[in-house]
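Example complex used in Figure S2.
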Amino acid sequence: MIGSFNLVGLIVDAIAIGTVYLLGCIGETLTEKAGNLNLGIPGIMCCGALGGGFGIWLCSDKCTDLAASPAYMYVLVSILCSMLFAAAAGLIYALFTVTLKANQSVVGLVLTTFGIGVFRFFAKKINKDIIFSGAHYYFKNLFGYEGDNIFGKIFLSHGILVYLAIIIAICAAFLLNKTKVGLNLRAVGENPATADAVGLNVSAYKYAFILIGSSISGLGGLYYVMDKSDGTNFTEAAIDSFGWMAVALVIATMWKPLVSIFGSILFGAFYVMPAYLPLSRNMNKLFAIAPYVITVVVLIVIRFMNQKNNQPPASLGLSYFREER
Amino acid sequence: MENRIALELKNISKHFGKIQANKNVSLDVREGEILSLLGENGSGKTTLMNMISGIYYPDEGEIFVRGEKANITSPKSAFSYRIGMIHQHFKLVETFTAAENIILGTAEKYDLKYVNSRVSEIAAKYGFDINPKKMIHEMSVSEKQTVEIIKVIYRGADILILDEPTAVLTPQEIEKLFTILRNMKNDGKSIIIITHKLNEVLAISDRVSILRKGEYVGTVNTSETNEKELTEMMVGAKINLEINRVKIEKKNPLLEIRDLTILKDDGSIAIDKVSFYIRSGEILGVAGITGCGQKELCEAIAGLHKITSGSIVHGGESIVGMSSKDIIRKGISMSFIPEDRLGMGLAPSFSITDNMMLKTYGEGKTPFVDRNSARERAKALIEKLGIVTPSTETPVRRLSGGNVQKVLVGREIESGPNVIITAYPVRGLDINSSYQIYDILNEQKAKGTGILFVGEDLDVMLALCDKIMVLCHGKMMGIVNADHVTKEELGLMMTGAVNLNEEQKDKNFGIARDSQLTPEQWAEEEKKAGKENR
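Predicted assembly (859 residues):
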């Protein structure tokens, strides 16, 4: 497609990359709604990817005969293990920040370093297991669509985790805005003393949503390894940068999961844009900056608008002490 | 007609560390009754009520609800006994609507239509005025309080505890609240209202229970008592709370302020064309309901808050636009004790020594910190004011409230200021510590310092201050001589019912006759101020 701009290709690629952001972002949104700023997202995504690899190894180890182990088993076990590993990383974070009331930013950053390190240690092993089992294939192209139809390309050509991510985002939006649990969760993040006074268990809500959020974020790592990089071309450095982008996306989309779906595609578009535009290398770098610029602009704009419902949860980043006088 | 006893406390005791907050308190409230809990600041009223509402757990003693022994371990279990507390500082989520706040934490379904209709039902029954769909952050203080009360009733509470509900309300809002409380009482609910305002106690309650320094003094029927008796029970038999007012020869005005207008951070008016002056050797009190611009006024004088128009003249020189550091250098010091006490002026995790250096760090000649001289000064301060602390290196936040405040006031005085601005210096202190602070201020006054004293307790202000300026919603209602005014008159001015500034315009309140500037100079100042802000 020399000379003309391949818009459909751009959108398809943007959705593909955007899914990494989206999963990380929804997990972080739920965590932040509980009042906890989890900067360990990159590390947790690494743990999620690691868990996925562990799941593949578990399956291929149990069934030496590849044909005997059905495709969905690989996918299912891998997803479950991924969430479990990510939740375990989240549990470390929750223990430190909720029970021990340690500084959230510090714990988060340490967790990022930890996750990346562990992932690097196992990366080769995971790579071998995935390639040997061929499991990454099962993650890609859920509907097996190969045609040239524009609708089909944009909506049907993706892997299972892309659709799962969008479903999760919609569920998160529903949970936050339409259910009692969501109301309670938002109260915990806005004003834990109030939530406590009306009899909500603040710690339980924080624990639950740190764990749930982490396991969702972890899927972002799994998706990147299995689908986006075909089970081979992955590096922990890439997960690291995707993780930070996910955290930025939370702010850019103002803690609103439905907005995050489109925000993630936009961020994804900036990531893949250079491949679709005949630009010099230096110009390409500008696109890499764009998401951060957007995030900063959004932050400035929401501060100026000063609308209470667009602001971050009021007690984000603060530990809750009950008997403080 | 003797109603059933709804709630009974027997020999309740509670202490925090070494501080005995409540000691052997026994009281009861019947159904369909309003009980006032009366006591001075720090007499343990709120702590006691927090034990009934499950925030704290008593160390000793028993609580009986409707005749049965109750074990209230959490706010939730208090609700199960149908006890609800309306806190002084509202516990509401700002970004939620009234209805969302009301159902928060209940086991009900998330059905706002149903909630709205039930809220309207309750509102109609007791005479509330509420829009359940309104966001909390868009509400006035009185509306927020309404939400708090409905929240408690919605959960089926029929023992209601209100912690100083009138502190932040206007007289009309108070009257409305009292009407609602009487409606609830007639409906058979039991209400405990915490307050230290005697006129309200007499107006609303059936009986009064009095606490003094955490101890239970007694209960009297409101119809059989009067303000005098209640005061005596509250402060202790015949204790004469005399504050000596040092008489000093009047000197020149030190700080003159004219037509000062200040905006709050959110753009609303905090101080509206206020003029006043402080002479050397004089204490000028500032009275007003909390949040009437006192904070902004103090900050503006100290150079921490931008002013919109008007002039501030110190010793014949305008200090508008000066940096706070230059203002300190001119001898104006400010100590503001905010509600959380540690917020302004001191760094809580710093030692006394380091806090001493906060204002003088710039004076050293070397780039290194001179901790030794600061330590000497800290030692001198500890000795002079009798500050109770393990050492000069103990973090300030570990000290008790009174000692923290002494450190703050002491440091301000130590720099030898000629104007002291102090807001709520005795906030939350016991009687003894309060008097020590008053003594410190009087001592400074005798030395010729001009003092601006923003206070809460009118009795204290009447005894301590030479003159009292009354603010109401940022407007100056008049400046009166403390010898020639009563508490009631001050109260009327605080609520805006009496405006001497308007009524006696010819008196030119707040304009010193022997001003340090000539009228021409003032006109010039005004012009300058006008230009700067256009």
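DSSP finds 18 helices and 20 strands in chain B. The longest strand of chain B covers residues 5-16.
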